[in-house]
Description:
The chain is mainly alpha-helical. It contains 10 helices and 7 strands. It has helices at about 1-95, 100-180, 180-265, 270-275, 285-300, 310-370, 410-425, 445-460, 470-475, 500-509; strands spanning about 375-380, 390-395, 405, 430-435, 465-470, 480-490, 490-500. Strands 1-2-3 form a 3-stranded antiparallel β-sheet. Helix 6 (about 310-370) crosses helix 7 (about 410-425), helix 6 (about 310-370) packs across helix 8 and helix 7 packs parallel to helix 8. It is flat, with a radius of gyration of 69 Å. About 5% of the residues are buried. The mean pLDDT is about 80.
Amino acid sequence: LDTSSAAVRAAEDTNTAAKNSFASAQQNEQTTRAAMRSAEDVRNKAKDALGELKQKQAAVQMRLAGLNETRVQLEGEIEESRQTLTNAEARLAELGDGAALRAEIDTKQAGLSTLRQNLMEARATYDALARQADERARRLAVLANEATSWTSRKESSVAQDAALTQRKEAEDAEIASLASKPEEIAAQRDALNEQLDLAEAERRKAADALAEGDSRLADADRALKAADHALAEVREERIRRESAVAQAEQALGVVESNIREKLSCEPSDVRGQTKLRDDEPLIELEQAEKRLQRLLSERDNLGAVNLRAEQEAEELTQQITGMTAERDDLIAAIARLREGIQKLNSEGRERLLKSFNEVDGHFRSLFSRLFGGGRAHLALTEADDPLEAGLEIMASPPGKRMQNLGLLSGGEQALTALALLFAVFMTNPAPICVLDEVDAPLDDANVDRFCSLLTEITKQTGTRALVVTHHRMTMARMDRLFGVTMAERGVSRLVSVDLKSAEQMRDSA
């Protein structure tokens, strides 16, 4: 026991020394990590400064190169200007004062004005003569066309005169030949009149004979038509009777064939099939036809004989058995599905109510912290089932009664929405939280409360918050700032500032 106690005390001393060593190692590690972070910040700043210097150096080099090119160009232009000036001075020295040149220039300008006036007059004269020449040429062309036309007309007139002369000579000869024609025509006319009288007498005789023949022909035609009509009636009557006999024979044949086919007996034995006595009269035809139609319809309703009825019955029985088994399986599956749905709904209700109560608790406390007092809560509405219910947000800022979120002002609605957002976030925290312009509708006091709450939540949940903002108070409460600046026109550059490291450096200083 003494040895064990000594071993225990030695182990405890060793453990204490190890804990102290571990604590000092942790302290050294923290100090080293802080120094490393400071060194990294210094290195990042040095990199940023180096990048800025490189950019500035590149810009200065570009500007210097441009200035050098401009300088070379200006030196060339200056040299050319000097050479031009030297040439101009030498030329000016050669020309002297220029009085004689001015007088000569004035004399030549006067002569040039005179020549220009003469040239204008000559051009006007030339234009007039050219117009006259064109007019004369057009007139000559017109006269030439007219001369050609008159020549052709003259030639055609001469030819027409010769033709008319020939026609006149021919007409004169014909008139001379026709002078003796009237006497011959008169003699011919007298002879024709005599022949016409004889022909008229013969025509009258022939007309009388034709009238008598027409009357006889009309009588004969009437008699022929009457005979043809009587013959046609007789033929039609014969044809009708023959067709009636043929139809009767055909109907009789059909009836006999029907009797043999349906009754399986000869027509003479039909009475024996009717079960009537010999002295009993036959049934009326109409009544028999009605009874026949009724029996035929009953037979047709029975349908044809199905030779596969037994096989089809077996197939239907197998189908019914299979469908019954499938129905039982479906009923069992539906029951299992309903049971699973009930379990899921029950578990969903439990989880929903649990999450709702947790979110509601966080929302109540966060609302009071953001508003510096007041009350708020969440409520399920419109249904008894939580899975089908709606959500209503009730809030009562300090000094106001409990009311719906929609009746609050814009800033109050924004703060209430932030409280609900953070309540959900605290229920299920995430490694990163991104907030975009959430402080835009808030005043300075509410922005300060929002930043304080955001700091507490990030410390409590270990979440990194990324806030997009333009508010100066929000930017002042952040650990690091990222932005874009334009040091020169058209050149954008990313800038980052570590406010936490700056505060540490300030405190250490």
